[in-house]
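Justification of computing resources. Each target in the renewal requires a structure prediction run like the one illustrated here; the chain below, 143 residues long, is used simply to show the kind of job we budget for.
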Amino acid sequence: MRSLRFLLGASTAAAAAALLLSGCPEKIGGNCENSLDCSAENSRLCDVSQPGGYCLIPDCAAAGFECPREALCAAFRDTSESYCLRACERDEQCRPDYVCCVPEEGSGIDILPLPDGSEPARGRPGYCIAADVDGTRPTGCMP
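Resulting structure tokens:
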């Protein structure tokens, strides 16, 4: 009986170590090289057009859909696309070379209310986006 407990403990430790070494899926806004880096179930996508990749969830404007806690739903009027993007209030909440973008009025970007109709519980909600080459905020973001 003692050796069985030892073996079970060893196999559990080995499984935990393998999980740690393989890495955990990234949160929304995290680095990625492919979508499996974002979600083992392939429920998140990796936008490789962003520096270092960017984990996101598409089509969050669908009725009843709710983004994860670390994210908000941004809808882009010019393309009718919407994505769960990393939520922020300050640049420091974004990864290096990314800034917190609070959309300007008339930018064509809407931060959507939560499914229950309430506004996100953040002060001035923004989302993390790659900074321009000179390190400034992209067009359409408040200074």
